[in-house]
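In response to the reviewer comment on reproducibility (Comment 2.3), we provide here a single inverse folding case reported in full, input and output, so that an independent group could reproduce the run without further information from us. The structure tokens appear first.
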């Protein structure tokens, strides 16, 4: 079965639940994207910017001191933190902005939580001389002030969102309202494998370079495939970027790590796949944190990039079919993972990825010696240093 199918569904998940105003635009975008992904000139142009501007391929680094600390695991880090702008987000924004230019759009909008997608969108817009507007929750602006400054330096207008929990969900709501109002000239760069079809497909395809590179690099180093892939999951773009190239390799385990926040027995977490029933939000059907009346529940995580009550529909499909496993790590453990990688490898990770690093301690306890793991180090932690300083 093709994933997604022609209607944009991953099994029962995905689809296109949007106002009539956007339906024609999304159908046109789907046609344009499907034509461009098969167009050699477009693929060559995308590959050029990934290599010459973003800095691909990224290294697959054997973390020897971390591996010795964990005893049973041999850990490789896919160093997406080394990319221009400091995270995997630049892969997708470069791809989408090339689509936007081919469609004749002159204005870019985006939403952001941790700010890395906002910085990447502002960067790509500056590169091609396009107007750029970024929606960001007021709470996330407080937590990620350095990234807000970076976006403004790059020429973007950052609009604070003060509704709801003032985080990523609310920023996405406002970005969709803007899109509906200015649909003719505006291209909405969604940062995760979420939203209405064709966005989950499009973002996955632009991020798939992570797994394609990692698979080739690991085979060259180890002459076999890894036992596990591990990546953090908010909306899920970095995880899907790593997982997709290994989808048919049934012997490779896939583990997505969600944010348990202050605990799964509280309402202050972002563990959508662990605790959320199926619902519709932001134009797509997937697992969704909801209260007893079906209203969207406020999410919480110490990592702004994981602070989202939904998840990409392909992850929901992977979980339901058993192809991937999803676990949750709380705030305190994530901070422990943040310090662990900093001190053992001299690499300060993003708080989002720190959840994965903390989970490695659990995985190590139930693994036999020599188990191989690829961790997608999705971003660097410069943006989180001020926040961590207040927490430890």
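Designed residues, in position order:
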């Amino acid at each position: 079965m093709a994933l997604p199918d022609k209607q944009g569904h991953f099994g029962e998940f995905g689809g296109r639940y949007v106002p009539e105003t956007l339906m024609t635009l999304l159908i046109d975008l789907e046609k344009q994207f499907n034509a461009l992904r098969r167009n050699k000139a477009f693929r060559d142009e995308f590959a050029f910017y990934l290599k010459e501007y973003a800095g691909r391929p990224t290294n697959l680094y054997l973390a020897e001191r971390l591996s010795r600390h964990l005893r049973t695991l041999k850990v490789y880090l896919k160093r997406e933190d080394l990319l221009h702008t400091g995270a995997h987000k630049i892969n997708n924004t470069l791809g989408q902005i090339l689509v936007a230019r081919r469609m004749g759009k002159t204005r870019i909008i985006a939403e952001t939580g941790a700010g890395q997608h906002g910085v990447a969108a502002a960067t790509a817009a500056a590169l091609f001389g396009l107007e750029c507007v970024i929606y960001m929750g007021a709470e996330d602006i407080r937590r990620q002030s350095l990234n807000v400054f970076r976006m403004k330096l790059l020429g973007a207008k950052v609009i604070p969102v003060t509704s709801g929990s003032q985080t990523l969900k609310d920023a996405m709501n406002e970005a969709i309202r803007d899109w509906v109002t200015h649909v003719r000239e505006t291209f909405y760069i969604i940062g995760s494998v979420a939203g209405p079809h064709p966005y989950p497909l499009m973002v996955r395809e632009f991020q798939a370079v992570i797994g394609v590179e990692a698979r080739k690099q690991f085979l060259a180093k180890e002459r076999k495939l890894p036992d596990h892939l591990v990546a953090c999951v908010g909306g899920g773009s970095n995880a899907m970027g790593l997982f997709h190239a290994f989808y048919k390799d049934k012997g490779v385990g896939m583990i997505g790590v969600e944010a348990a926040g202050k605990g799964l027995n509280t309402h202050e977490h972002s563990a959508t796949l662990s605790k959320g029933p199926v619902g519709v939000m932001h134009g797509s059907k997937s697992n969704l944190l909801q209260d007893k009346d079906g209203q969207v529940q406020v999410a919480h995580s110490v990592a702004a990039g994981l602070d989202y009550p939904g998840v990409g529909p392909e992850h929901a499909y992977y979980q339901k079919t058993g192809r991937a496993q999803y676990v949750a790590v709380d705030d305190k453990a994530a901070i422990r993972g943040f310090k662990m990688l900093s001190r053992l490898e001299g690499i300060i990770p993003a708080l989002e990825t720190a959840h994965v690093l903390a989970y490695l301690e659990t995985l190590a306890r139930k693994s036999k010696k020599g188990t191989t793991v690829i961790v997608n180090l999705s971003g660097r932690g410069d943006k989180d240093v001020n926040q961590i300083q207040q927490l430890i």
